[in-house]
Write a structure and sequence with these properties.
This protein has one helix at about 25-30, and strands at about 5, 10-15, 20-25, 35-40, 45-50, 60, 70-75, 80-85, 90-100, 115, 120-125. The chain is mainly beta. Strands 2, 4, 5, 6, 9, 10 and 11 form a 7-stranded mixed β-sheet that branches. Strands 1-3-8-7 form a 4-stranded antiparallel β-sheet, with no helix packed on it. Strand 4 and strand 5 form a beta hairpin. It is globular and about 40 Å long. The mean pLDDT is about 95.
Amino acid sequence: QVQLVESGGGLVQAGDSLRLSCATSERTLNAHFMGWFRQAPGKEREFVAAVTRYGGSTYYADSVKGRFTISRDNAKSTVFLQMNSLKPEDTAVYYCAAGRTIYSGGYSYPPNYDYWGQGTQVTVSS
């Protein structure tokens, strides 16, 4: 059974940084590409960032490009999302996700992900 456990969320001020972690098993990390999504109250879940299976490529939403960095540490079986220069509009529940196959829509398309974590809350005050 695949488990994804997010941590690292919290309440910060605009301009601060946070690093989210997604812990899983080595087997899961080696077999899947990984992504981060977020969902704000009253809004649909949206893509944030993704990293390919061996970490060779990364993808970002335009809204976070240049501020967020996704990375994976296979030795620690963990995926990270480093978030810098946080803005109030980054406030959301952040979810880690894992997928095996891109059917359509690319890495930003939620149905391409097979497993999801429970989420971690990030709140950015102005």
